[in-house]
Amino acid sequence: MITFRPAKFSDVENIHKLLNDYAKEGLMLPRARNAIYENLRDYIIAVEGNHLLGCGALHFVWDRLAEIRSLAVSPEHKCSGIGRQLVQHLEKEGIERGVTMFFTLTYQPGFFAKCDYIETAKDKLPQKVWKECVYCPQYPYCNEIAFVKTTVDYEPSHVKF
Ligand SMILES: CC(C)(COP(=O)(O)OP(=O)(O)OC[C@H]1O[C@@H](n2cnc3c(N)ncnc32)[C@H](O)[C@@H]1OP(=O)(O)O)[C@@H](O)C(=O)NCCC(=O)NCCS
In this structure, are strands 2-6 and 43-48 parallel, antiparallel, or unpaired? Predict the structure, then answer.
């Protein structure tokens, strides 16, 4: 049976391998172990027994704004609904905590469209989103596509970005 649960320290090596195997194929950005450990509370995983089937992370960025990132399903379990369920679990947690806008930067526009995300111009996202871009190997030549999903009209606090 497939279960979805928060990631633990003992999952880090498997998450690191899954993400970076895809990164080597150019399908997603690489993640250092350090970044996974520091953001471990962001991650949920799909497992069957002790076997990692997929992972995804929800990273809070600003007032009611969160990024879906590091989403990956192992090659042998793709196209069986796990990716969508990971997104749904992350969204549920985000909504419970008050998130009203989710965004993602991706090379997989078709998948996020299926998850009811809407493509948007990158410069429409708040500047706060770009804080980590200097650490990206692609910087400053970003070719990811931005997608957003809002649960209600997104209205951040009066603090300016
Ligand atoms: C993208 C990824 C996470 C999708 O996970 P998945 O478990 O295979 O996707 P699901 O089975 O939940 O698919 C949900 C729907 O999206 C569709 N879909 C899945 N991947 C797609 C893609 N790359 N392009 C277009 N549609 C896609 C499925 O056909 C399905 O459609 P349906 O509801 O009409 O049947 C997975 O393919 C993956 O790990 N890819 C490599 C890493 C990667 O690119 N990660 C994204 C980083 S942003």
Answer: antiparallel
Give the binding-site residues of ligand 1, using a 6 Å CB cut-off: 22, 27-28, 71-73, 78-84, 106-108, 110-111, 114
Please write the tens of the pLDDT for every residue from 64-105: 999 999 999 999 999 999 999 999 999 999 999 999 999 999
User: Of 18, 103, 108, 138, which is best to mutate to test ligand 1, by the most ligand atoms within 8 angstroms of its C-beta?
Assistant: 108
- Residue 70 CA to ligand 1 centre (angstroms): 13
Q: Which of 80, 92, 78 is nearest to 44 (CA)?
A: 92
161 falls in which pLDDT band (50, 70, 90)? very low
The number of the ligand 1 atom at minimal distance from the alpha carbon of 110 is 25
DSSP string, 44-77: EEEEETTEEEEEEEEEEEETTEEEEEEEEE-GGG
pLDDT in tens, 104-114: 999 999 999 99
From 76, 111, 119, mutation site for ligand 1 pocket: most ligand atoms within 8 A of C-beta: 111
CATH numbers and ranges of domains, the chain: 2-150 (3.40.630.30)
Burial of 59 (0-12, 13-18, 19+ CB in 10 A): middle
